[in-house]
Each structure stands twice: as structure tokens, then as C-alpha cells.
Amino acid sequence: LRSIAEPVKKQLMLPRNGKELKQFVLVRLPILSWLWSYQPRFLINDIIAGVTVSVMHIPQGMAYASLAEMPPVYGLYTSFVAPMIYAVFGTSRQISIGVFAIVSLIVGGVVRRVIDADSSLCAVESAANDTVNATVIQLDYPDCSASVDIAITVAFVSGLLMFLFGLLQLGFITTFLSEPLVSGYTTGAAVHVFTSQLRHVVGVPSSVVRVDPGVFALPRIWVKLLAEVFSGRFNWAPIVISALCVIFLVLVRLLNVQLWKFRCYKKLPIPIPSQLIAVVVATVISSLVELDERYDVDVVGEIPTGLPPLTTPKTSYLGDVIVDAFVAVIVCYSIALSLAKVFAKKHGYTTYPNQEFLAFGMMNTIGAFFSCYNASASLSRSVIQDVTGGKTQVQHIVVMYVVCV
């Protein structure tokens, strides 16, 4: 008990003089350190990196929210609020904060499990489905109000756990997470993400392929999905749309690699935003051709505008989500800190594991009151943020502004 109490006592101990006060404030608010020494020549790099990553945030925010069983706009809320908070409390200059596929998948699993266990929520879902256009993809989510409440509670609990771990100075726990373990978990999660989206590709309703959670749940989903396909109960339109989008994304990615390989970035400072282009073009075509009415293609529907509404975590779900929140903490923190250490070593600065715990704790706890679910660092966006020349946390502020607009 003494070994646990000492770090907490040290963290909560008030500064005794001006020097200690300054050190305490600079450690707890890293923004004061890098902002004081900020060089104007970094600004153009941070703006370019921020705008480039923002282009990825928008389609990923909407897509990953569906993995968390939430309406698309909540992914945008998370991509707006989380970077702003991390810019104040975080110590890494290159990692990109926002929605992340693996964490979204964990949250989605919690939402489905809790709602499946509560028949009253399922009844509300069925009643709501009878009064809404069946072509809107939000009907595939559990009841929107319940799913949002559960996901926000997961974020709140995760934030409290991270904050507590930071006070206890438990940043060292990532040393016990081996690289094969993290890589294996990431690969397995990628398979789950792919499977969860495949039914959208072939146009099969979620109710048809839904299975009870447990052992071999993934193979059972594949069996049901293949049975539908071989029976001819699928839709060619989403298959064609998905194939065209994948081909376009792959070709543009190869083009971006070649452009950067031959140093064409001096004339083209940012990569071609393939994801945003695909979303915009598909949206325009869907509106003009009326894909939802003529070809029975699921569409997102109207995205609400405005700032994130204030929310309150539901204490009634605390017991249901505590274990999964702990899993989300470990996955989120281990991946984020691994990325932070890589970029810190590359660029010659230091990240502080315990402060990162506190930063992620503040990010998720505060975010839960602004309609955000669990935020983490994204590997793909972090690499782009680094490659495009991001220098400081100012790029998080740029991301916040662009996503808000």
C-alpha cells in the first residue's frame, strides 16, 4: 500500500516555492513549454500537416463511428474535441488524435452486448425502426440514444481509469506489452473490422448476419454472409460502388507514394486526398442518381451541423462497461505510447508516459461531456502527419478548426 500511496502523494503534493510551482505547471500543461519556444517558421509546416490530416479525419470519423455503433456525426465530434484537449496536455508532437478503428470496434462490441442484454432497449429500437425510412443506414445501429449513452459512458470510465493510472505513475506497464502481442491484437481487430463492413459491401441487412457473441462468432457471421450471397440475396449496386472506391483509393495511394519518392512534394506539399475525394464524389453521385431509392443502397442520411451537444455519462451503465473500458485503456494507451516513442526518438525529444496517461484521461473524460466516444492515436494519420512535416501540437488546433468548419 505504501508503494501505491507514495506516487499519489507525490502527484498531489502542492508546490512549496516558485521554482516548484513553475515546474509543476510546465509538466502538467506541456502547451506552455512548447508554445513559449514556438518558432514562426514551424507554422506553415503545422498548417499543411493539420489540413492534410483533417482531410482524413472527416471520412474516417464518419466510418469509424459506425464501428462503434453510433451515428456518423459522433465520429466528427470526437475528431473535433479530442485533438483540442490533447494539444494542451499531450507531450507528443506527431501522433494524430481522434477516432481509431480498433478502439471503435471495442466500443461497438460493448454497445451491442449491453443492448442485447436489455430487451427494453431492443423494443425501443424496433419501434423507432417502424417510423424511419428503411434506406437510412442509421437503422442498422442499435437504438441511437441508447448506443450513444453507452459509448459515452465507456469513454468517461476509460478517461477516469487513465487519469488514475497517471496519478499512480503506471506508465511503465507498456513495457510488459510485447510487440507480437500488440501486433497480433491489431491484426485480429483488422479482421473484425473487415468482417463488420463486408455486409455493407454486398448489401445484406445486419439482422440477417447477426449472431450471438461468443466462440467462433466470426466464422458464423461468414457462414451466414456467404449463404446469403450464394442464394442470390445481395445487391450489385454497393458491390460495384465499393469496388470502384477501393480501386481508386489504391491507385491514388500508389500515385502518392511515387510523387513523394521522386520528391514532387516540393510542388505538391500535401498528398492527394483520396479518401475525401471518394466521399465527395460518391455523395454527389448518390444525390444525383438517387442510389437509395432506385438501387436500394444504404446512405448515411443528413449529418447534423453545429458544435457537439453537452451530454452526461449514464451511471446506470457503469457496471456493464467497466471491464471493457479497462481493455480499451490498455489498447488505446499501448498503441498511442508506442507511436509517441517512435516519433520522439526520430525527432529528438522526450515524451512522458505518465503525462500521456493524464492527457488521455483528460481527453476522454472531458470529451464524454461533449458527445465524444473513446479517442486514441491513429497509425495511418500519425504517419501522414509526420511525413507532411508537422512540427508541434499546433497541428491539432488546425485539425480542430478544419473539422469544425
User: How far apart are the first and last residues' alpha carbons, in Å?
Assistant: 50 Å
**Ranges with pLDDT <50 over ≥5 residues?**
123-143
- The share of residues in extended strands comes to under 5%
- Major sheet: 2 strands, antiparallel
Task: Explain what the structure shows.
The protein has 405 residues and is mainly α. The chain has 18 helices and 2 strands. The protein has helices spanning 2-12, 18-28, 30-36, 43-67, 73-89, 101-117, 119-129, 144-167, 179-202, 206-209, 217-230, 236-261, 274-289, 291-294, 318-347, 353-367, 379-387, 394-404, and strands at 96-98, 376-378. It has a two-stranded antiparallel sheet.
What are the salient characteristics of this protein?
405 residues, mainly alpha, two-stranded antiparallel sheet, 18 helices, 2 strands
Write the layout of secondary structure elements.
Blueprint: H1 2-12, H2 18-28, H3 30-36, H4 43-67, H5 73-89, E1 96-98, H6 101-117, H7 119-129, H8 144-167, H9 179-202, H10 206-209, H11 217-230, H12 236-261, H13 274-289, H14 291-294, H15 318-347, H16 353-367, E2 376-378, H17 379-387, H18 394-404
Antiparallel strand pairs: 1-2
